[in-house]
Amino acid sequence: MMFNNIVSPFLTGLWGRRLCWAALTIVCLLFLVTIIQTPLTWYSDSKLTKAQAIIMDLPHPAQSSDLIQQIPEWHLFGNAAKSADTSILPVTSLQLRLIGVVRAVPDHKSSVIISEANQVGKVYLVGDTLPIGVKVDAITEDGVILENAGRLEKLPLQRQPLSFQEMPDKLFA
Fold this sequence. Notes:
The chain is an alpha+beta fold. Among the domains are: 44 residues; 68 residues, SH3 type barrels (Roll), CATH 2.30.30.830. It has 3 helices and 6 strands; from the N terminus they run H-H-H-E-E-E-E-E-E. Strand 4 and strand 5 form a beta hairpin.
């Protein structure tokens, strides 16, 4: 009974009727938006379900084994750009000795003579792998850059320092 005494004057008065009409208008607008939005959503969903699926050709089993064998050669973050400054590379600690360097104008034709553990030297080109598993990465004028377990190291050409004798006081005695 108390509820009717409080609510009834609001709903029967002029402002009460206006409030009811405003609430009814908002509900009708929301219903209208829902009616319009539903078919549009259904249409876009139907387009997605009818879209062509991306079909990937699965490799032949022989190709799969080739791909699997190539995985160790892939680099997760790519290969770093090769720096022209070889002075920052560490000198290799491997038991190798660089005997000679033959530089050619196309770099891929350059060669080096490397001796392992004081054995007879062998000729290697860029890209060749030494028997100990180290790869020749690049050849420079004064050494060779090796790839040892994914790290670049340099093997410098050992040069004997020149020693000069003093000039004699008299050339002809």
